[in-house]
Amino acid sequence: GAGVSQSPSNKVTEKGKDVELRCDPISGHTALYWYRQSLGQGLEFLIYFQGNSAPDKSGLPSDRFSAERTGGSVSTLTIQRTQQEDSAVYLCASSLLRGTHNEQFFGPGTRLTVL
Amino acid sequence: AQTVTQSQPEMSVQEAETVTLSCTYDTSENNYYLFWYKQPPSRQMILVIRQEAYKQQNATENRFSVNFQKAAKSFSLKISDSQLGDTAMYFCAFMKHNAGGTSYGKLTFGQGTILTVHP
Fold first, then answer.
1. Of A1-10, A24-33, A92-101, B64-73, where does mean pLDDT reach its minimum?
2. For the domain B3-98+106-118, what is the CATH code?
3. Which residue in A113, B6, B37, B48 has the fewest CB atoms around it within 10 Å?
4. Is B2 at the interface with chain A, CB within 8 A?
5. Chain segment A86-95, per-residue pLDDT in tens
6. Do B106 and A48 touch (CB under 8 A)?
7. A25: domain CATH number?
8. Domain range spanning residue A71?
9. CA A41, CA A85: separation in Å to the nearest integer?
């Protein structure tokens, strides 16, 4: 079946603009994760959605970052008033959480460049 | 909080030879999983191998095996008969879970090791 998809694959924006990054998880996966991969910080957890539970937002670096997951499926990560340090690859992953079926399947990422 | 450390920023190996990538971690948790992920230039993260911390037996997946030393908090990856397609960045990752095995979600990653396989 289809894997995790993300769009756009690349995004170039100007400092101060807002951006939205989209993630389509694998159908039936109840959990969805966002990570950020940057040269200086490596791979960092941002936010985690699990079913109807309140999301774990503990990794969001500032209040300029937010995410939502509509209908338990598609997720959008929004970055407001982008800064140059937001430049990174944003990875989305999804998984089941039943028993030990917890492998996270990753999308190809969105490369964000803030000029 | 958990930390994962990969002390080898880069490694290289000749095709068909064996290479070992190192990973250490620090945690006070008793229930957790450890993973090795591969990220080729395409950026697609792919799970290579998984180890449940409660299992003493080291996980193996074809040419990939781990040496899991729980007391030392060490989790190295051995790649046997290296192939050109193994060229990628490799990440060691940690995930805690509850006693029933359901994960708490987030992965904590090491800094990564770039592996280059030479013909």
1. A92-101
2. 2.60.40.10
3. A113
4. no
5. 999 999 999 8
6. yes
7. 2.60.40.10
8. 5-106
9. 10
